[in-house]
Amino acid sequence: MKSPRDKRRDSRPHRPARDDGQKPRPRDDRDDTRTRPSPRHETAAADRVVATPAPPRVLARREGALPAERLPLILEVAPNADYALLDSGSGQKLEQYGPYRIVRPEGQAIWQKALPAKDWDRADAIFTGDTDEEGIGRWRFPRTPLGETWPMKHDGIDYLGRFTSFRHVGVFPEQASHWDHMAGLITAARRPVKVLNLFGYTGLASLVAARAGAEVTHVDASKKAIGWARENQEMAGLTGKPIRWIVEDAMKFAEREERRGSRYDIVLFDPPAYGRGPKGEVWQLFEDLPALTDLCRSILTPKPLAVVLTAYSIRSSFFAVHALMRDTFAGMGGTVESGELIIREQSAGRALSTSLFSRWVA
Ligand SMILES: C[S@@+](CC[C@H](N)C(=O)[O-])C[C@H]1O[C@@H](n2cnc3c(N)ncnc32)[C@H](O)[C@@H]1O
Question: Yes or no: is domain 83-162 CATH 3.30.230.10?
Answer without folding.
Answer: no
